[in-house]
From TrEMBL:
PANTHER family: UPF0232 PROTEIN SCO3875. Pfam families: DciA (PF05258). It comes from the Bacteria. This is DUF721 domain-containing protein. The lineage of its organism: Bacteria, Bacillati, Bacillota, Clostridia, Natranaerobiales.
Amino acid sequence: MRMQGIKGELTEFLAKTGFLKKYYDQIAMNHWHHIVGEEINKHCRPSKIQGKQMIVICSHPMWTQELSMRKRKLIKDLNKKTGKKIINDIKFVTGQLPENNTTSSKRRKENKKYCLNKDDKKWVCKVINDVTDHELQEKLQKIIQEDIQLKKDKKDQGYQECKKCGIMTKELKLNAICLQCEKEKHQDKLNSIIRVLKESPWFQYEEVNEVLHIEITRTEFNAGKNTVYNQIKDQLKQAKKACKYCYNDQNYAWLKDLLNQYVLLVTESSPKEIGDSTWRKIVGSLGKDYLRIIDNNRK
C-alpha cells in the first residue's frame, strides 16, 4: 500500500502521537518480501530500521555479498513502494533470521482487553478504514487502542492532554499546552522576530508586533533584538578580518552591509533618517578599524 492511501484522521493521529515514522517503517518492512521474492526472503529478512538505515539479517555471507551489490535498486524499490523516501541505506549482516512478519504477527496476537466505549471503537474503525493492508491495519488498530487506553489511565491519575502534541502531562501551561510545546512556541516567536528585524533592523516593538499579527511581549522582542545584535557583531568581526587580510569588492560590500544593519538596529531609525555624521559616529564606536577600511575605500 502506498502512503497516499492514508489521509485525514489517521495521518493526524500518527503525526500527533509520533507514530508516523514507525508507520512508514512498517510499510517498508512489509514490502520487503514482495520486492526480493520468496526465495531471497527465506534467507534474508529485515530486522529493524534505525533512522533511515534498514538492517537486513542474512543466513549466509553469500547472501550478504549478493544483496550488497543490489543495494541501490533495493532502496529505490522500497521507497517507491512506500511512496516516500524512508530508506537511504541498507546494512546487510549475517546472523539468525528474524521471524517472518506475517507468521510472527499471527503468533503474537494478544487477547489484551481495552476499556473502550462505543464512540472510541467507532472512531478507531473510521481512522484505519483507509488502510488496505490487513496486517498493517491490525497493527495500527492495536497502536491506536493502546494510545486511547493509556490516555484514559493517565487522566485517572490526574494527567491532562496537551492540545497541540497530545502528550499526557501534569505540567500544562495556562493555554493548555505542555512545557515542550510552550518552548517551541516561544522559539517560533523568537525566530519570527529575528526574521523581521533582519529585513527591517530599525523596526521597533510596535512595528514588529503589527507585521507579525501575533501577540509578542516586550521581553520576547528584546530577546529577538539582542540575538540579531549579537549575530551582526560576530559577523562584523569576520568581515573586518576578511577585508584586512583579503581585501576585494565582495568583502567590502559584505562589511558595508553589516555596518548599515548595525547602525539601523542601534538607532532604530530608517535609512532615510540616518545622516553621514550619525553613521560615522555609530560605526566609530565599534572601533577605528571599521572607519579606516571605509575611508581607504573612498580614496
